[in-house]
Every structure is written in C-alpha cells, then in structure tokens.
Amino acid sequence: MPREKRIDAHLAVLAAITLGVFFVLGILLQQQFFSLRNFQSMAYQFPEFGCFALAMMIAMISGGIDLSVIANANLSGIVAAFILTKMITSEMAASGAILLIAIAILAALIVALLCGLVNGMLIAYVGIPAILATLGTMTFYTGIGMAITQGVGVVGFPEQFLAIGSGKIGMLPIPLVIFVLAAIMVSLTLNKTVFGQSVYLFGANPIATLFSGIHNTSVTLKAYLLSGLLAGCSAIIMISRVNSAKVGYGDTYLLQAILVAVLGGVNPYGGRGKVSGVLMGIIILQSLQNAFTLFMFTPYAKRLIWGLMLLLVMIIHYINLRYQERAKIRAMVSQI
C-alpha cells in the first residue's frame, strides 16, 4: 500500500479517536469540559509540549530520537531568564526593556540551536547512536543549567515578557499563535522543501539516500538543528507562562512528546509521519490531561497512564508493521 494511503488511513482513525474522546468526556464532564474557559485554559497549556512533540517528530522521522529537548529548553530558558532579570530594571524605559526582551528571546533560540548542533554533530559526524548521544547531552545540558543556577529558580520577569505566556492576540492566546506558526513552518519544511523530502528518505533508508547523492550527515545535522529551534520556542513559552526558569521544569513532557509523536503516526524507525497526525495526537493527549485534572488524578497516576499508553501504542504499531511485512511477502509469493 502506498505510504500516503497508509498515513491517510491512520489520520482517519485518529480523527475518529479524537471525536470519541470528546464524546466520552462530554458525557462524563458535561459543562466542565465543554466550556469556553476550559478550552482557553487548554489553549494556554498545550503549546509548550506541542512544540516538544514537533521537535521529537523531526528527530524520529530522520530515524533518530531527541531525549535532550527538555534539558535544551531549560538551559535556553535559563539563559534568557538571566538576561531578563539582570539587565532589565524597573527604571528602564519601555523601549529599552522591549529591546532587551528581544535580545533575551534571540539568546534563548541561539542556545537552543547550539544544543541541537551538538546533538547533530555527535550523531552525524562522531557516529554515536541518537538515543545515546541525546541521553548524554540531556545530562550535560541539565548539568550546565544546574551549575549556572545552583538549583535555584530564576524569577521576576518584566510584564512585557510575561504577556507572551498569558496574553492574547484578539481572541487567540499568544502561546497558541506561536505553536500554530511553528506547526505551519514544520509542515511546509517537511512537505515543500528538498530538505524535508530528504529527511523522509533518510529515515526510511539511509543507505539508499547515500547512494542517491543525498548528504546524510547534512540531513541529520539540519534535523537536529530544527529540533533544537523548536525546543527553544517551547522554552520561551514555558518560562513566560510560569514566570520563572529552573532545571527540571517540564520533565514529564519528554514522555508525552514521545507518546504524541508515536500516537500521531510517526514511525519510531523513521521515514514516516505528518504534522496533522501529531496535532490530533496533541488534542487527544491534552483532552485526557485536562480530564485527569478535573477528576483530580495524582501526578503519579498520570505518569502511569502515559507510560501504559505509550507501551500500548508501540505494541499496536509493532503488530501493524509485522502484518504489513507479511502482506508484502504474500503479495510477492503470489506473483511468482
């Protein structure tokens, strides 16, 4: 079966699951769930882990994984936080404060890109497997953040910066606008550029891409740079929403990002995945997260459920792959 048809079938199943989740939660929670206030709250909450899910998707499509996205975001956020708290004073003019806020955001994105660059170089040039390379850099970035802050949160950002995490553009929350722009950028990059097609081909068959003239090292490097940039976007949203930066923020997002990516149809082995699938995965996960909060589940119970969901999705994905392989073999045998 062609790749696009398989993905479209998966999207149809995801759409049905999304509607089913909304239907069940609507029955159980009624107005608590289907209220404008609840949906606005969800729109402020999911963009930061949504950007993490997009970053994870890029890495997984390329045939790897990025376990350092949370540590990258925390380190980037800490760098921005120091600029915001050490260089901006209450006596400063508004124009000067806005300029320094822009510099802080730019610094966070640059640090995030540098972290992505380190990941890409370790994987592409040194040849370390992605899971080991990013596991090591996760610890390394966390250690740098801990050394800078001594484990203490950096708090007290200017009101103009806090508007990024809590403000609106018309009726739309600013974090949602940032996430939508990031999702559009990733979708266009994957579907409309040579690099995007190279990522899919490299993830599906790196040996074939090597002999087809595609520079595998360049593709890997760019994929992890993009993953790092998305982690930087998450950092800006996250620290502006909670008004602080600290090592350890968003640790639970790592499991959720992997779960959303796999649930959204991204092949853990590489070569397949679409932004639209990840978006539906985010909606499903955030709806369940919101329901768990309304049902007053403990954080430990939530992590247990996310872990079980990831195992279940991976098992279903593995069974589906085995079924497709056997179907291909039967088709080849029937043609002999």
Provide an overview of this structure:
The chain crosses the membrane at residues 12-30, 42-61, 97-126, 169-188, 194-211, 223-241, 253-270, 277-298, 304-321. It is found in: Cell membrane. The chain has a single domain, classed as ABC transporter involved in vitamin B12 uptake, BtuC. 78% of the residues lie in helices and 2% in strands. It contains 13 helices and 4 strands. The strands form 2 sheets. It has a two-stranded antiparallel ribbon with strand order 1-4. The protein has a two-stranded antiparallel sheet with strand order 2-3. α3 crosses α10, α6 crosses α10 and α11 (253-263) packs across α12. The longest helix is centred in the last third of the chain and has 37 residues, at 299-335. Mean pLDDT is 86; it is low at 1-7.
- Beta-strand percentage range: under 5%
Mean pLDDT over all positions: 86
Q: Structural class of the helix and strand makeup? A: mainly alpha
Q: Could you tell me how far the N terminus lies from the C terminus, measured between alpha carbons in angstroms?
A: 19 Å
Total domain units: 1
**Major beta sheet, specifics?**
2 strands, antiparallel
Subcellular location: Cell membrane
Main location: membrane
GO molecular function, one term: transmembrane transporter activity
Protein name: Inner-membrane translocator
